[in-house]
Write a sequence for this structure.
C-alpha cells in the first residue's frame, strides 16, 4: 500500500506570494492533518480534515487555510507569505478521525520564503 | 541533510548498547501516546504507540513505558544500530480529538 504522498517536495517563494501544497493520503484513510515543522517551534498542528470538513484548527493566522476533496486528498494554502513561514509542512493521514487512530506522515514539503 | 531541530537534547550511544529516550507529556487528559522517528529529510515514521490503560508495550527491539502518575513516557531501543540514528519524538492526544501534540524531540546518535 502506498504511503502518504506530498507535492511538491521543495518550493521557493518570495514574500507576499501565495502557495498551495498538496497531500494524498494512504488509500482508505479519511482523515488528513497538516503540521508545520520549524527548528525553533518544532512540530505544530495546523488543521485536520475529515470527510471534506475541517474538524480542528491550530493556532495559526487566517493566512493558512486548507481543504479536503471527496477522494480525501487535501490541499493547504498560505497567502501573503512571510519569511517566518519557511518550514517543513507535513501531512499525516489516518483511517478514523477523533478516535486516537495512528497518524502516518508523508515526506513533507520544504517551503523556503525569500 | 536538513536539520529538524537546533539544540535538541542528544543521546550518544555505542552500537549494540540499549538506548532509553525520555519524554514528559503535558496533558493529564491524554490517553494515547506515540513515538515517531524522523531521519534527516524525511517525515516522522511511526514506531510504537500505547494507550493509557497500559503501562508497557513491546515491539520489535522497542519498548514503550508509560507512567501516568508523573506524566512520563520512555522509549527503549534494544541493541541499538547505526540505522537507529535519528530524531525521536513523542506525541500525545486524547480520545475524540485526533490532533497530536509533539514533544521537542531527542537526537539519537549511534556510533
Amino acid at each position: 500500500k502506498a504511503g502518504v504522498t506530498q507535492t511538491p517536495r521543495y518550493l521557493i517563494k518570495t514574500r507576499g506570494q501565495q502557495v498551495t501544497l498538496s497531500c494524498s493520503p494512504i488509500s482508505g484513510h479519511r482523515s488528513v492533518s497538516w503540521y508545520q515543522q520549524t527548528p525553533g517551534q518544532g512540530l505544530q498542528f495546523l488543521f485536520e480534515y475529515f470527510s471534506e470538513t475541517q474538524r480542528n484548527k491550530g493556532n495559526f493566522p487566517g493566512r493558512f487555510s486548507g481543504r479536503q476533496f471527496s477522494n480525501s486528498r487535501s490541499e493547504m494554502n498560505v497567502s501573503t507569505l512571510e519569511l517566518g513561514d519557511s518550514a517543513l509542512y507535513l501531512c499525516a493521514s489516518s483511517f478514523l478521525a477523533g478516535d486516537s487512530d495512528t497518524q502516518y506522515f508523508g515526506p513533507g514539503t520544504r517551503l523556503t520564503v525569500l | 541533510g536538513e536539520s529538524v531541530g537546533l539544540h535538541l537534547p542528544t543521546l550518544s550511544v555505542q552500537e549494540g548498547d540499549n538506548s532509553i529516550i525520555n519524554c514528559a507529556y503535558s496533558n493529564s487528559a491524554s490517553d494515547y501516546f506515540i513515538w515517531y522517528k524522523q531521519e534527516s529529510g524525511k517525515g516522522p515514521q511511526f514506531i510504537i504507540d500505547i494507550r493509557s490503560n497500559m503501562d508497557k508495550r513491546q515491539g520489535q527491539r522497542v519498548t514503550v513505558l508509560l507512567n501516568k502518575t508523573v506524566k512520563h513516557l520512555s522509549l527503549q531501543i534494544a541493541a541499538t544500530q547505526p540505522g537507529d540514528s535519528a530524531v525521536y519524538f513523542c506525541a500525545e492526544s486524547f480520545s475524540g480529538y485526533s490532533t497530536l501534540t509533539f514533544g521537542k524531540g531527542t537526537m539519537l546518535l549511534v556510533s
